[in-house]
Amino acid sequence: MTMPTVNDFLLILPEVVLLIWALLILLIDLWIPDTKKYYTAVLSAAGLVISAGCAFALLGRTGSAFSNMVVLDGFSSVLSILFLLSGLAAVALAYDYLKRNAAQRGEYYTLLLFSIAGMMLMASANDLIMVFLSLELLSIPLYILAGFFRPRLASEEAALKYFLLGAFSSAILLFGIAWIYGSTGHTDFPGIVASIDGGRANYLLLLIGAGLLLVGFGFKIGVFPFHMWVPDTYQGSPSSIGAFMTVATKAAGFAALLRVFLVLFPAEAPIMAGILWGLSAASMIFGNTVAIAQMNMKRLLAYSSIANAGYILMAFVPYGNPVIAQEAVSSALFYLLAYALTSFGAWAVMIALEPAESDGLLLQDFSGLGRKYPWLGAALLISMLSFIGVPLTMGFWGKFYLFKTAVDGSQIPLVLIGLLTSLVSAYYYLRIVMFAYFKPGEPQIQPGRWASVVAVICAAGIFVLSFIPTPVFQFAAQMIMGMK
Questions:
Q1: Is the predicted pLDDT of residue 359 greater than 60, yes or no?
Q2: pLDDT of 227-284, one tens digit each?
Q3: Distance of CA 376 to the CA centre of its chain
Q4: Taking Cα atoms as reference points, which of 119, 17, 117, 126 lies closest to residue 67?
Q5: How does residue 483 score in pLDDT terms, banded at 50, 70 and 90?
């Protein structure tokens, strides 16, 4: 282990900037009165913009830092930008929403920045110890933020369930790391790969460790049967945090899963493929089926997120095929972008209408939205069509690339399950549209405009990018070519 150099810190400059900024805000917020917490929100957004600028500046650069525990490549750079933009959306959604619920406390934004830094480090992790530390850095602030509306019972329940199951999954992940260390004598990725390629690893211990890692990551991405926390946590948490967890936490979990399994376990793909196949199929079937019965919008989006995790896993099933591996990662990145825009758009519409001290809107609360607020109705419509995968939306192109990757990997039955469950999802997504456009009602936008702004921007992004899917996909493919 060598002493860190200036170059080490330069390679993780976005994370360093964000962490220092978060610590400064923590101190500055002590002198900001409760009536002027918008200063804290503005400072947090500024920190995210500066960090994103650093991440854009590092696009195309590669290297390793801190004795090869962290790597910089296109994969980590793209995901870091996605996390930072998700953070900006979360800050915008939070300001008016927290004010409405009399919960304007500056630590909200600081905790959010710490969590984003953990996600960025997880995407860059090149050592299993770094994976675990990053996971804890992103998770612990979210445990607190899930219960931010204390002493509301629903918020406290959400935080408790998330914390208990999160701690349990972290223990499983750490146990898996221990098994892999016992098998190979290494926790760093190059050392593990060298031990496996050299025939020095204990194969049985390695498989057990890989299985335990999959369970730990399965919790973070919220796939069946590791989804138990998702519906209650999303419903009880502040909606702004529910939106953030839906996108960013899922993306961080997939970032770690993709890098770990592509780099460490390509030879174990024949065994892992069957497990991934089962997780993908079960998540798509369970998430879409249970979502049909939901009348609470938060719970519906929670089960939708389980199904969408299954769709992303579909492309990763044939990851052991070197011809498919890069296509799988590119498809996953493209779909994560489409899912981020779509999900933030849907949550933003809900937050714009959600009154104070509410645990989420019921579907009938959207009645009349399309007539009374055409711009919000259009944003909701575009988001729902994108969730379904209606041509020509970003959701359609995302599923197209996922299905194509699965077909190229000879996973035809899994593609058929994906197609059929997408048809099932059309029922509950279009039911929301039906309430918004075909049912009489008088929905009321709550004070504040930022949620409406986010909804319109996301809808515009879905619409515009749907006309240029190929350049976006090619950019994702180019970024992961140097993935380590």
A1: yes
A2: 888 888 888 888 889 899 888 888 888 888 888 888 888 777 778 888 889 999 999 9
A3: 24
A4: 126
A5: low
Which candidate, 185, 22, 208, 215, places its Cα nearest to that of 106? 22
pTM: 0.90
> Tokens 């009536």 sit at which residue?
35
Which amino acid appears at position 355 of this protein? P
Radius of gyration of the chain (CA): 21
Asked if residue 261 lies in contact with residue 319, where contact means CB atoms within 8 angstroms, the answer is yes
Concatenating the DSSP letter of every residue in 87-105 gives HHHHHHHHHHHHHHTT---
- Report whether pLDDT(377) > 60: yes
Q: Please provide the DSSP assignment of 251-287 as one string.
A: HHHHHHHHHHHHHH-STTHHHHHHHHHHHHHHHHHHH
pLDDT for residue 256: 87
Partners of residue 65 on adjacent β-strands: 70
Residue whose token pair is 């999900």: 343
Tell me the C-alpha distance between 87 and 90, whole Å: 5
Summarised one tens digit per residue, pLDDT across range 101-132 is: 877 777 888 999 999 999 999 988 888 999 99
430, burial (CB in 10 Å: exposed 0-12, middle 13-18, buried 19+): middle
User: CA-CA distance, 461 to 454, in Å (whole number)?
Assistant: 10
The single-letter DSSP state of residue 449 is: S
By C-alpha distance, which of 478, 481, 475, 328 is closest to 405? 328
Give the H/E segment covering residue 188.
Answer: none
